[in-house]
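Co-fold these.
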Amino acid sequence: MARIVMKFGGTSVADIARIHNVARHVKREVDAGNEVAVVVSAMAGKTNELVGWARDMPKASGGSSPFFDAREYDAIVASGEQVSAGLLAIALQSIGVDARSWQGWQVPIQTDNAHGAARILEIDGSEMVRRMGTGQVAVVTGFQGLAPDNRIATLGRGGSDTSAVAMAAAVKADRCDIYTDVDGVYTTDPRVEPKARRLSRISFEEMLEMASLGAKVLQVRSVELAMVYKVRTFVRSSLEDPDAPGMGDFDNPPGTLICDEEEIVEQQVVTGIAYAKDEAQVSLRRLADRPGVSAGIFGPLAEANINVDMIVQNISEDGSRTDMTFTVPTGDLDKTLNVLDKVREQVGFDAIQSEAGMVKVSVIGIGMRSHAGVAATAFKALAEKGINIRAITTSEIKISILIDGAYAELAVRTLHSVYGLDKQ
Amino acid sequence: MARIVMKFGGTSVADIARIHNVARHVKREVDAGNEVAVVVSAMAGKTNELVGWARDMPKASGGSSPFFDAREYDAIVASGEQVSAGLLAIALQSIGVDARSWQGWQVPIQTDNAHGAARILEIDGSEMVRRMGTGQVAVVTGFQGLAPDNRIATLGRGGSDTSAVAMAAAVKADRCDIYTDVDGVYTTDPRVEPKARRLSRISFEEMLEMASLGAKVLQVRSVELAMVYKVRTFVRSSLEDPDAPGMGDFDNPPGTLICDEEEIVEQQVVTGIAYAKDEAQVSLRRLADRPGVSAGIFGPLAEANINVDMIVQNISEDGSRTDMTFTVPTGDLDKTLNVLDKVREQVGFDAIQSEAGMVKVSVIGIGMRSHAGVAATAFKALAEKGINIRAITTSEIKISILIDGAYAELAVRTLHSVYGLDKQ
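Predicted complex below.
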């Protein structure tokens, strides 16, 4: 008998009819003889409604302070999953499947005290697993747990993916199925490149790059956890007929398996093309080239909660002055320039140049570790289309290229084609 | 320093603006130097929405069974108070009042296992009281607690009044203020008799009769608890300006004090007139007059969850056959007749007569214990208006009269006047 964790997001449980559909997916796995835990998000729209109320309350009180207590925010927002978990348990019972809901504090799912953006520390699933052993489906509220202060803590937006993977690790599940409104992970965004193909498998490392680079299928933190605990994770569609042929195939269900790279027999050099829009480029000209300069720039930016992404620094010509370029989200550009103005004197640089509306296009593939010339292929292909490269950063399995936002779609399609991703 | 429990119902916390108004009521009591716990209901309409989903879920699954798990129902429905408690805590913080929310399981408020209609067994308010001692307002979710199975249990509709009184007893509060959308308890329903007056005080026993007889100000169970634990309970309005003159008067706030009868110095013979509509009268003719007959009738009715109210049985003429009359809610009349048909043979009676659309009018007053002729006054007054009396039951402090529903308002006004309740 196998043990499966199934996760359903907000659009999958958006209304009574969809919750019934989710129950049918669960029943299929139970009927196949599996022990099942289900992790659910709040019904689509509910979390936003609750967050809106929490944010509006201080304003309604006429105060100028936008302050709200993260612990109260958590108590309010966590109620969304409480409702969907209870409804799914009822739906399962209605079709003859034994089930009960578990709230994070009941399992318990222990988190740290960082209310609003908590991390899961430990899951004591022993009582839950005991009941699963009797054939009872455990329906668990995603996105939340119990903090050391005995109050509910939420994991931050999208945290239900993380809940599911952490749960799968805790109960030693054979598989963690993330049901969503797409049917898998694609070689690139199909809205940009209709020839994008669904991947049958992708490695944890590659998925981590895909996730953090803007392919919004899975939350980054959940992929990190899956990688650390070697959780075999499937991304698959909740919108398909639960009883369609092949849906119950244990080893090869329709969707994309995120797994250890050793499980991927025929490795491609390049697996996918990701992109992230709304990047702003900031360049510091004739920067003093001495120890502590980087800390003097990026320390204050981090304190201002600005998420710096690509960082490029050239070796200086004469050993005293250099140029540095980095990117920040376009929404943070004004704040960034303010911070830099303040540290200009102390750090020492001649000028700041900046430009918003950039896009970062990334080529991802574990195979490039053992293949030369992958980067050169990208540069040549972009040059042939007349696309100017603003900055380049690389890692072992990724090449990221900053270009003007106007060329985003063209660049994605060009790279997708040059690495043969549009061919079966 | 005094300790106060304040309770606000669903209409009082219906939206962000009203929750802010509630926060101002609380701040007034805090500023006066009191330790305060606040018990809140769900935002008006939310409980109905949640109940609706729980009820619709089994139907959506296409099953013929209307079954739903009361434990899941509780988990779903209890989320409503979780939201309003969190929002009120934020509202209080926004106007400079230290506050935190407490969910039933966090206090904990221990209940029995009767999910959906649980009873409070014990409240361990020690940590809550400790924090209240530091000036922190405790905002507590009404209507719910923690059952022995470590799951949320709700107290049944209207249960927040009970939560508040139980909390007041547990923390030894000096006062329990029930804020609602009326400004107190009246001598009768002001919509029926505009001359109805607000009572400044009413005894627990009288309020119990008023509550159970259809004056929907307070839940019956909460009055029982208040009586047992001698909780001084005020019924007052949440809609008034929190800072209007007299609102902060500790001993005589605007509203009605429900208290021990010894606290009521000038006792009236009659305190109020209550009525309950939609009663159906059922009469069994020539019923066998032997031991076990009543059990043979009311046992099966109780098993069918039919709430029998007035029961009148006359002494039989010849010692062998008698007539019996009782009332049930009009909505349960068909079910009642079905049950009676089944037991007819075994119990033994000649005929069943029934009539729907009756109303029960009741005269209530502790003073009638020491005054003769109170009942006679009622009968005479109704007779003068040509109102026919169908049945009469009495207790020490109450006379209930069943009449044709068409005369309901006339009877209420007539009795209200004949006992001088419309005079200051």
